[in-house]
Amino acid sequence: MREERDEKKKKKKKDRKKKEIQKKLTQKKKIKTLFKKHSTLSLSPSPPLSRCFNGAPNTAFISSSSDNPSLLDAAGFIRVDEHLRVVGKEDQGWFALGDASSAPGVKLGYLARAQASTVASNIKAVMKAAKEKSTAPNLSKWSANNGLEMMLVTLGKGSGTGHLGKWVRFPGVAVAAIKGRDLFVGKTRAGLGVA
């Protein structure tokens, strides 16, 4: 009798999991279909919500300046070289990083933070070269993790999605365990020395 109850519980649990998985798969299909058909979502009674990827950078303040017309590329990103110096302003010590720069790689927060480290190092090198009256500072080159960008997106505390490079996908439970605890706020605070 007890074994029958245990078997029924296991069967119920298995059926419940099956339904949850089926529900998630159905939701994913609906979302994929929606984004293939539309570029804007309307959530009543809220105003339209645009897709949050492949957007244009907010660099209008630069493009509106008549003395800096060539600082932007065709997509509106600030043109930078491999040292993250602004192309056309290298001799003036201008640098750009993050979402607004044309630096190779995807636009992710942790990469912007790594770019900030490269820029800080390069600013120090420029200052050192100026102090020593050297003509060429020893600048660091920016490299976006050799093409192995990682993205982790939490979907609540127990799930998420992510990838490393183009091929490695992370299961939702792993993403929740890695990033779901504090969304890397603690890691960022520690990196900034304010933990």
Task: For this entry, give a set of tags.
mainly alpha; 195 residues; 5 strands; three-stranded antiparallel sheet
General description of the model:
The protein is mainly α and 195 residues long. Among the domains are: 60-144, FAD/NAD(P)-binding domain (3-Layer(bba) Sandwich); 148-192, no CATH class. Helices cover 41% and strands 10% of the residues. It has 5 helices and 5 strands. It has a 3-stranded antiparallel β-sheet with strand order 3-4-5, with helices on one face. Residues 34-51 have low confidence and may be disordered.
Short description:
This protein has helices at about 1-35, 60-65, 110-130, 170-180, 185-190, and strands at about 40, 50, 150-155, 160-165, 170. The chain is mainly alpha-helical. The protein is elongated, with a radius of gyration of 24 Å.
Q: How is the main sheet built? A: 3 strands, antiparallel
CATH hierarchy, class of the domain at 60-144: Alpha Beta
- What radius of gyration results from the CA coordinates? 24 Å
CATH superfamily of the domain at 60-144: FAD/NAD(P)-binding domain
Mean pLDDT: 77
Could you give the count of β-strands? 5
Helix count, per DSSP? Answer: 5
Helical content band: 40-55%
Spell the H/E element sequence: HEEHHEEEHH
Strand content: 5-15%
Computed structural class: mainly alpha
CATH topology of the domain at 60-144: the name is FAD/NAD(P)-binding domain
Q: State the low-pLDDT regions, or none.
A: 34-51
Global geometry = elongated
How does CATH name the architecture of the domain at 60-144?
3-Layer(bba) Sandwich
Strand order of the largest sheet: 3-4-5
Taking the alpha carbons of the first and last residues, their distance comes to 56 Å
